[in-house]
Write a structure and sequence with these properties.
alpha+beta, two-stranded antiparallel sheet, 8 helices, flat
Length: about 300
Amino acid sequence: MSNAITNRYEFVYIFDVENGNPNGDPDAGNMPRVDPETSHGIVTDVCLKRKIRNYVGIVKNQQPPFDIFVKEGVILNQQIEKAYVQCEDVKAAFEAWKAWGKNKKLEKPKRAYEDLARDWMCANFFDVRTFGAVMSTGDREESEDKSKLRKTAGQVRGPVQMNFGRSIEPVVPLELSISRVAATSEDDPEQKGVMGRKNIIPYGLYRAEGFISAHLAARTGFSDEDLKLLWEALINMFEHDRSAARGKMAARRLIAFRHDSAIGSAPAHKLFERVKVARVGDGKAPARAFSDYTVTFDKTSLPTGVEALELL
């Protein structure tokens, strides 16, 4: 892996959905998430990060240093356990602490095993060094004197953070009735007409914004190679996340701002204001395609020390 990034970044991500459910709300029967006060659609940061994880897992075959910590079907404590099995430094530090717990006459070692485990997790798992993780859930081990040790890797605050995606205009969630022609059981052949429900949005254009901290990247090892992979995931992740429920989703624009230092040269919100999305025409008819909007980006007179990157 290369060295951690040394520049601050922000980015604007614009994506859309056609006849699909971009992010169902389990507390509302899996209806598309909507702001109840404005009727604008919402896609959570967790939903977007899940798609990024899935894409990286596909293209990197879930192998270190691009393995994925939070993925379907895994036990997180078993993921953390890998640091105590595969890393000799972690194993030695943990055993030294356990030995001192049994015999206080020994010189008390530094409790370094958790820090070493955290560093190992950052080095081997892309999503840990990118988004951070809570890894203080590991299994307890009990020494002879009943002092309890927990195989943990602490907590990591990731350098890449995103806000919720929000639709440019209010959306109209629809609950459609569906049926099938086949029965599930020969005992009740009339079941073939059983009705179901499908939740969609006819069309919605969403905007999300993200932040990348060079200071936090230095702690996790988030590198230029990781950053390139993040951009690649944002551009291509919907191509590998198809389902009947999600309809047609697509990444439309990805604009990043690169500062010439870790501190940065301008407030993020001022840079975000340079990217504007507006309706074509009078906007009286409901939007049904990306062509119903225009995206403008003011690149003139950027603050000194800020570079604009139009990645999509």
